[in-house]
């Protein structure tokens, strides 16, 4: 994935359209890109369909802070405990396999 620096003097980068990026801060705040749909959510679990498959996010006191359906952006807050991907074809892959495998 390549980032393109914007004309803005602050260190902000534009994410190429279609790239799926997950950013987590201290397991308390999570930003996701390329979100297609949110299949289900409550305070303990989110099922999010992304361009890279279905992502299960488990934790405590999870809540949506920001959702932009048109741009596919989602920001969550809460105590994030696990992330788990299922490929579009139904095969499971954990986050480490997703990142490094």
Automatic annotation (TrEMBL):
<protein>
    <submittedName>
        <fullName>Sporulation protein YabP</fullName>
    </submittedName>
</protein>
<dbReference type="InterPro" id="IPR022476">
    <property type="entry name" value="Spore_YabP/YqfC"/>
</dbReference>
<dbReference type="InterPro" id="IPR038705">
    <property type="entry name" value="YabP_sf"/>
</dbReference>
<dbReference type="InterPro" id="IPR012504">
    <property type="entry name" value="Spore_YabP"/>
</dbReference>
<dbReference type="GO" id="GO:0030435">
    <property type="term" value="P:sporulation resulting in formation of a cellular spore"/>
</dbReference>
<dbReference type="Pfam" id="PF07873">
    <property type="entry name" value="YabP"/>
</dbReference>
């Amino acid at each position: 994935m390549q980032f393109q620096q914007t004309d803005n003097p602050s260190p902000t980068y534009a994410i190429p359209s279609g790239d799926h990026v997950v950013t987590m801060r201290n397991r308390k705040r999570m930003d996701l890109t390329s979100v297609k749909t949110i299949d289900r959510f409550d305070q303990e679990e989110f099922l999010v369909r992304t361009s890279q498959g279905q992502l299960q996010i488990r934790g405590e006191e999870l809540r949506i802070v920001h959702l932009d359906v048109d741009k596919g952006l989602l920001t969550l807050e809460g105590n994030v405990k696990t992330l788990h991907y299922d490929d579009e074809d139904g095969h499971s892959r954990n986050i480490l396999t997703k990142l490094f495998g």
